[in-house]
Amino acid sequence: MTDNQSPAAWHPDPHVPGQQRYWDGSAWTSHTAPLSAPAASSQPPSKKMNKAALWAIGAGVLVVLIIFGSTIGGNRPKTSATASPAANATTEATAEPAAEEPAAPEPAPAPVATVATEVYSGSGDNVIAVNVGSEPAVVTFDCPACSRNVSLKTNGPDSLLVNTIGAYTGSHVINATTGSLTTQMTITAVGDWSVTIADLTTIPVSSGPVSFVGDAVIRFDVAFSAVNVTYIGDRNFMVKGYGGKYPELAVNTIGSYTGTVELTGPGYVQITSSGSWTVTPV
After folding, report:
1. CA–CA separation, 110 vs 189, rounded Å?
2. Between vectors from CA 93 to CA 87 and to CA 95, what angle results, nearest 5°?
3. pTM reported for the whole predicted model
């Protein structure tokens, strides 16, 4: 069609059979309609009609979105208005257990006896074979009615245990150092005597002050690093401890003495004395 062929109106679409297209009097427009529809208005499609179509399309899209959203929402897990399980936990929180008090330290195991008790007796000078060997032991020498010089010696490193004049009763530690070996004892005495060899576990145990007269061995079962010492006498006085790694000679003097000296405990303490004394761990 040309400008002088036909006025503006709806005409069969020359390009698409079964469809009519609007001729604006000079050219074909983009507006189309089915041929089976009622006769289209001779007026060209207005902008209002285009807006209405757009609104219809938009409404259709909105409906589709709402339906789609409902479908998605319907597939979601249903939530309850109640509090979450964590907030409504039925398990009651139990109180924390009270802190346990530190266990008291276990006491040190009691020493195990390794030396069988042996008793030897006689009168006057004598040499006796003993079975103590290399085990630490305590030797008690008793010569209550002796006169003149009295002595007791071993063939081990402890050597001269007793050397006095007149009656004597006292105790001494032997084989206290590694490598000691005692198999024989020599007695010098005028009178009857007895020698008792026993395990160190037979020594009386104390945790406080100990007082005595003469030579003695005591065992302290408490920890200490020093002892208070008091001695009344005019002869040799000695305090020797066996609680440390090596024997400790704490006091070695002549005459009365009072003082505090270093000594390691628990352990055995040898007192050599001709008078009265008191030893207290501190």
Report:
1. 37
2. 155
3. 0.60
